[in-house]
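Researcher: I'd like a structural prediction for the single chain below. Treat it as a standalone chain; there are no partners to consider.
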Amino acid sequence: MSSKQEFTRDGMYRKFCAYGFLKNLQFFDPFLVLFFRERGISFFEIGVLYSVREIMTNVTEIPTGVIADTIGRRTAMVLAFISYIISFALFYLFPTFPVFIAAMVFFAFGESFRSGTHKAMILEYLKLNNLMNHKVAYYGHTRSWSQIGSAVMALTAGLMVFFTGDYRSVFLYSIAPYLLGMVLIMTYPRELDFSPEEGESAAKDEKRRIGDTVKDFLRLFTDRQVRRALINSSLFDGFFKAVKDYVQPILKGLALTLPLMIGYEDHQRVAVVSGGLYFLLYLGTSQAARHSSRLNDLIPGIARGLNITFLAQFLIIGGIALSLILGSPLAAVILFVILYLLENVRRPYMLGYLSGKIKGSVMATGLSGESQLKTLLVAVLAPVLGKVVDGFGLGYGLLILAGISLVALIAVPIRDKE
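Model: Treating it as a single chain, here is the predicted structure.
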């Protein structure tokens, strides 16, 4: 796998980067757990909401992946943006637990239509333009713009909460960039809708296309290397997704204990500390994603690099747990930052590995299958972790999660012929 980064920054490169930037302008993200807690929802109930989101994403993942690979990826992406916008509107207009469940369902539809689809469009573009040898660096660059979007989002969201004193309003403001993102997707060229095989007619019968797509997807799981890689990737990302938002209550507690902005309201102090840290965090993850292709230079061997990063995740989550148990929230926050950086170094590297194993015509479906495994894991872990946190504290909940992470690495390490 090449780590070179020489490729043309053409119009499509800029569109891919713009999409990533707009997609991550979810202004509620740094305050989602705090928003739920403000509404009197327990950590277990938050876990239930996350589980509903993940289960619905899981149920619709493969069908929407098939839709993307059969009737067009651009159409799937437009449907994703529409679903997200409905979700944001429900969170803002009806802030009650039953409606939150409905909002999570619409959010899940957005996730299932989007996951894997845009990555497949990028990879198809690279294939059409003979740029596949740059796939890790190219995707790393576009992902870095997603993280820049997250950095801008965090700073802007912090200012919104600082001046409005309201976590709820950030859902309303999240609608505008998603409308822009939907318009952007409509400008993508038609040739990115499908991945026709060499010599195949572009007018292939749709029924046959669906049948072939399903068959190719099922074949993915008969290949031991592909099956192991998909499971390994979904476990790593699933653990990260289950734990990442727990930094928010830690930040809130830290913000209220630090001798900063003493004369300001509590929500203003939390907004400045949370927004500022998330801003710096996402600037760091942007650089991590941009330079992820260098991982192969630092750790020779794709399988070795992926396994070492998985081991690092276990050590970091365990370190966060011990920091909290020993009463050192600042150390826990620092480790959370490292965890975010690790996720954004590994993800482009793993995508490059998977793209060499999965047939182009089922890339969206294959990546949706990976995402489905991840969402199933989060659906199980989120409420269980929430219950443990309610009963015994966040430190012990994360300690258990770290142990599960170690077992997963031992069970399904990446094994490949170097």
